[in-house]
Amino acid sequence: MWDRIVLLPVALIIGMVMGSFYNVLIYRLPRKISIIDPKRSFCPICGHQLAWKDNIPLISYLILKGRCRYCAAAISVRYPIVEMLTASLFTLAIYLTNNMIDLFSLWIFFSAAIVASAIDFEYMLIPDSAVIVTGIGGLLWSWHHGHITLSLITAAFAFGIFLLIYLLSKGGMGFGDVEYFGVLALFLTPFSAVMSVLIASVVALAYALPQVIVHKAGRKTRVPFGPFLAIGTTIAMLLNFHLFY
Predict the structure, then answer these.
(1) What is the pLDDT of residues 57-84, one digit of tens each?
(2) At CA 96, angle to CA 161 and CA 10, rounded to 5?
(3) What are phi and psi of 35, to 5 degrees?
């Protein structure tokens, strides 16, 4: 058992720093820009590479009042949101477990979910790297909880069912959703997997309804499902639906 009070500021700092890095991934991965070249972050408008003082998580955004120091272009609010969300979820993980293996598994899960969700919302795709990282975290989680065989079976069924939906929907669901839920299911057992899909569907419907009402979106309007699968999985885990542990 660890001292959560001591670990709280550590998780916050690590979360803020990692959130800053995830912003780099969110911008570069869908644009197929190397994550190591250029090494330093740059303004997407003027291309100026940022000094260290312009790249301090959240603080720089507040000091610069949400604008680039060099061209005064507005900085997307996504940057501080991702940093704060990562810090919050990393801190939440401290309260959900009391051992390092579970902690790292949850950090991996939350990290990949943030990157995948942000990209999916903007580009309607889930990068393969996020799927792979989620799978690693899921294997580690299920192995440590002693139900890796059950979770592998759950993941196989989840992938198969979503693949069938993908084939029957004729474009209504992206293949990235199929892959993503297949690895998310590694964190789950059969009952919690069903619950995560139900929760994801309800939240997705709540997200889509205002668009249908206000913007008169039609049946062919696409909704990114990856973020809601991540939300559904998170809630299922928080509600401790893992009855087969």
Answers:
(1) 999 999 999 999 999 999 999 999 999 9
(2) 120
(3) -85, -5
